[in-house]
Amino acid sequence: xxxNYENAIKLLTSQGKFYINLGLERISKVLELLGNPQDSLKCxxxxxxxxxxxxxxxxxxxxxxxxxxxxxxxxxxxFDYTERININGEEISKENFAKYVFEISSIAxxxxxxxxxxxxxxxxxxxxxxxxxxxxxxxxTGLGGRFDATNVIKTNLCSIITHIDFDHTDRLGDTKSxxxxxxxxxxxxxSPVFTSEGYEEIKDKADKEDSLFIMVPPFEDTTNxxxxxxxQQANLSLALAAVRYLFPEISENEIQExxxxxxxxxxxxxxxxxxxxxxxxxxxxxxxxxxxLDFYYPNRRKCFVFGCLKTKDYKKMMQxxxxxGDDIYxxxxxxxxxxxxxxxxxxxxxxxxxxxxxxxxxxxxxxVICGSFYMLSELVDPSLVR
Length: 386
Description:
The protein has helices spanning 5-12, 25-33, 52-65, 94-110, 117-131, 169-172, 176-183, 200-208, 232-246, 252-259, 283-296, 314-321, 341-347, 373-379, 382-385; strands at residues 43-47, 70-73, 85-87, 90-91, 136-140, 158-161, 193-195, 213-215, 269-272, 275-278, 302-306, 327-330, 353-354, 366-370.
């Protein structure tokens, strides 16, 4: 088999790899065989239910524009796996991506270590960043925190915990306190933790690790921030609190200029006057989306193109998102867990139609494509959002 990008993707998405299995034992063993590249890296570690990607993107943009060689690790991707790993805004090449994927998979297989897709990607990221002498890594957790593969790091520059809400309750717990406990697992000894919510589980973990607990009020001015949405004030406040604490040499003027350049595609992104793309994929995400739509466009007729995974609370998501008078179109995307049109229609209290094309939507409405990361690549032209 040729060791190219296409075959690397086939390996990652094969039935034997493409599933979730939380834990640090497997990733630790592989990284040890690679010489523990993660131990040479300085990381800013970010966990939370929503807002992680925006916080990471803001911090990485500021640091890289200041001249710090900055690695950014995020998930999921929208169009290509290479979006998940970049240095100073430049994605890992498909050639390098394939090379690292096959190298790490071979090492794991030869040592009978069965890695998941996310564990392979995380090992690729640590090795790639270490090989390229990255100075600071901005690290987004994949799921949870305590047993997430990214949490193999022993130290960090700081931890950031964004807004906590219900998602992945089968793995993280069915109360916000249980979820907060899992997210707090990223807190490291003698390392500050920034958060905007005062969960006792986060405070207790910070006390246990002798780490400074810093509550951040959502008061930052978002005027210069290129990312839009009412939720961005809290995200920006967390990001800037961490940057100012860790890198006081970065001037306020430099910070504000950097904010104009931040990119985090498909998060309340206006791609043309009548089309917004938003990767809201859980109840809290669609609540933030609805709030932003009503705030920025109170008098616009709204037309939704919605698709969702069966593993999400899609009934609650639709109850939050849709209102009387909205135009609603459902889409069944190419994923084994994608809700069928029938499942969505039976769970929706309003009339709806089957989505066929953007050209067939009402001309006078504000169109909103939302509901799942996994469907965006099927509906959105990459040139519109990148």
